[in-house]
Amino acid sequence: MPDRVRIRLEPLGETIECERGAALEDILFERGLEFPCGGLGRCRGCRIRVLEGNLLPSPDDRAILSAREIAAGFRLACRARADGDLVLDVGEWEAAILSDDEAFSFEPFSGLGAAVDLGTTTIVAQLLDLSNGRVLGVRTALNPQARHGADVMSRIQFALARDGRTALENLVRRDIGSMIESLLAGAAVPGTPLHRIAIVGNSAMRHFFCGIDPSALSRAPFEPASPGPDRFLPADLAWDLPPRCEIHFLPDLGGFVGSDVLAGIFATRLHESAAPAALADLGTNGEVVIGDRTGLLCASAAAGPAFEGARISMGMRAATGAIHRIAVTAGRIESDVLGGGPPRGICGSGLVDAAAAGLDLGILRPDGRFADSRTAWTVVPPVEITQLDVRELQLAKGAIAAGLRILLDRRGWTPSTLARVHLAGAFGNAVSPASAVRIGLLPCDEQRIRPAGNAALRGAKMALFRPDLLADGFRTLRKIVRHVALADDPSFLDAFAESMRFPG
Question: How many whole angstroms separate alpha carbon 312 and alpha carbon 315?
């Protein structure tokens, strides 16, 4: 029997050779497959489908997947080994990473700078010519920490175990260092010095990168152990870069509101706004900021992963085969599928559109139940939405809407007070403003909602041209931002319960 087997990944068209009996977890993680529970076999997040070959279901497969799914060839990648040649469907895991190419004003400097957005799922780095602001190169990657859990709380628990913190630190430092070294090698600017690097990320990512004990984030009141800022030299990180290059990880704002939000405020100029405005980064941990130049309030809301297609029966990433747009025309459902082929599932923006369509068609009631007592609704065959899917969406949108409501109440404002609402991040730029308003995710007129792109990365790039702000950790901006711990607000639970309902 040959000692090596071949695994073909569709629709990627990639063939891998590996040792017979190798764990699929090790093979597929490098190709973008996520393991939300850290590979413990407790969820269905690493589900793959066997198209050809024999891969017997494990006990965990039978416990977590339905009999119909197993018969259709679905397996948990974290519990499978390559004992023979296989053809696997991994189309759900094609990664689309949001970069940034928006222009901004700046004062030129000599030399080069690099900006890095260290996300929970993805990393994007750009190299800039500081004399003219031109982007010389872009590198993107999946966050290598994802094999230890898709969400920050899973990784915090891993970090608190023996040697876990060091493992997470080494993984992300190694990959970011390699990305920047690759950018320099490919930029063809010999002799031009790299002066500084600005890195932004959420509170957990800053703790992991900077080697800070994350235990304070694992328990109430969930405040960062050290607010920052953090400054390094290449030797501190074992990076092969010019020795005098300064590496700055921007500071947190409080709780789970990290430097990615600080950079988003800087990029959207929210702190300079004469009119009341808001910034929302919608994800598993949603962050919201409201205010104007007189002061800003920020908060984080645990929305859950519904906006990213997780915990949804036929949910998936925004990848080939995902329904990402739904509209009602003359009483009929129309949809768009990423890649143009038949639908395989539905991503977060499609789910929000589907809920809005269900409300308009009278299929969904304001309390989230199906009007005719059905348990599932086939939106576009074969993709259906179950009653539990709707509940997951209600939990996610309820947390964000309640957070916004409490911040507005603190300022004595109403939703109509807001002149603009900036939506940052991949989901925020994909979701339909009209659908977001229809389901009560955002409580304002849709004409006031503006996609902000990757505001975190853009803010990091803008910071490269402000070495004075990098040096003092954006102290002046941070002084006008106040963090609000939603869990400590006595009105939060009532606001959350009310915000889970859909508008009538």
Answer: 5
Cα 411 from chain centre: 28
% of the chain at pLDDT higher than 70: 95
Helix, coil or strand: residue 176: helix
Which one, of 406, 402, 454, lies nearest residue 428 by Cα? 454
Give 226-255 pLDDT, tens digit per residue: 766 699 999 999 999 999 999 999 999 998
Write down the domain spans for the chain: 4-93, 112-262+455-474, 314-384
Helix (H, G, I), strand (E, B), or coil: what is residue 246?
strand
Mean pLDDT of all residues belonging to the chain: 90
Q: What is the pLDDT of residue 97?
A: 65
Question: pLDDT tens for residues 100-155?
Answer: 778 899 999 999 999 999 998 889 999 999 999 999 999 988 888 887 887 788 89
pTM: 0.85
Which 8-state DSSP code applies to residue 236?
H
Nearest to 65 by CA among 87, 88, 81, 47: 47
Sorting pLDDT into bands at 50, 70 and 90, what band is 223? Answer: confident
SS (H, E, C) 385-418: EEHHHHHHHHHHHHHHHHHHHHHHHHHCCCHHHC
- The CATH code of the domain at 112-262+455-474 is 3.30.420.480
Which tokens in the block code for residue 85?
A: 């040649």
**Please, are residues 239 and 215 in contact by the beta-carbon 8 Å criterion?**
no
Note the residue count of the chain: 504
pLDDT in tens, 407-419: 999 999 999 999 9
Count Cα neighbours of 33 within 13 Å in the Cβ-side half-sphere. 28
Distance (Å, rounded) from C-alpha 449 to C-alpha 419?
9
pLDDT reading at 262 higher than 70: yes
4-93: which CATH architecture? Roll (3.10)
Name the H helices within 224-320: 234-237, 259-268
- Please state, in angstroms and rounded to a whole number, the distance separating the CA atoms of residues 37 and 140: 24
Number of H helices, E strands in the chain: 16, 24
Query: Pairing relation of β-strands 86-89 and 135-142?
Result: unpaired
Q: What span, in angstroms and rounded, lies between the C-alpha atoms of 395 and 371?
A: 19
CB atoms under 10 Å from CB of 429, counted, come to 16
The pair of structure tokens assigned to 413 is 């404002």
